[in-house]
Every structure is written in structure tokens, then in C-alpha cells.
Amino acid sequence: MALEATTTESACSGVAARLGVAFVAEPLTRVLAVPGVVYRPFAPPEPLSKLGVAWRQDATSNTVGWFLEVLDELAADLGPGRRLAPVASGEVAR
Predict the structure, then answer these.
(1) Left if phi > 0, otherwise alpha if psi is -120 to 50, otherwise beta: which for 28?
(2) Beta bridge partners of 92
């Protein structure tokens, strides 16, 4: 049986109801207190996850550019060589 949760809160509610386990981003564990839920860190090495970002190819908004710059800076904070991955067109997202 599988339960698909659309929010972190509903995933944690499913855990509290003993329906299974959920993976939650570590920063949320400090602010999301759900009765009956205990957060446990992964043992090293921690698993990696990949996230994607999509935007319209013809987007000319400065906001899109600024958002991508922030994402690039956050990725760089993860360690050397970490940057936004190439987009489907083969260009590097900047």
C-alpha cells in the first residue's frame, strides 16, 4: 500500500497515524512538530536528491534571472563544483 502525500504536513500526519515513514528535509524537522512523529537523521553517507527547476524559455523577467542566481549560489554553498546542471537545450542555466 502506498500513500501519496501532497504536503510535508500530510506526510507527517500519515506517519503519526502509523501508515508508514516519510523523508523530510532536515531544516523542516526544527520547525514542524507533529505529535507521534520522531525525526531521525540518515547515517553517513547521507543520500543525495536531485531537484529540477523549469521556466519558460522566453522568460525575460529579471525575477527569473535573480531566482536562478540564488539557486546557483545555494548550490555552490553545498561544496566545490556544485552548480546548476545543464538544461535540456544543452545550455547552462544562469
Answers:
(1) alpha
(2) 86
Report the share of the chain in percent with pLDDT over 90: 3
Secondary structure of residue 75 in the 3-state scheme: helix
Q: Is 9 helix (H, G, I), strand (E, B) or coil?
A: helix
| Residue linked to cell 534571472 | 65
CA 93 to CA 54: how far, in whole Å? 10
On whether the CB atoms of residues 84 and 72 are closer than 8 A, the answer is yes
On whether the CB atoms of residues 5 and 11 are closer than 8 A, the answer is yes
What distance in Å separates the CA atoms of residue 67 and residue 17, rounded to the nearest whole number?
Answer: 37
pTM, entire model: 0.51
- Dist. CA 83–CA 94, nearest whole Å: 10
* Per-residue pLDDT reduced to its tens digit, 44-73: 887 777 767 777 778 778 888 888 888 877
- DSSP assigned state of 46: P
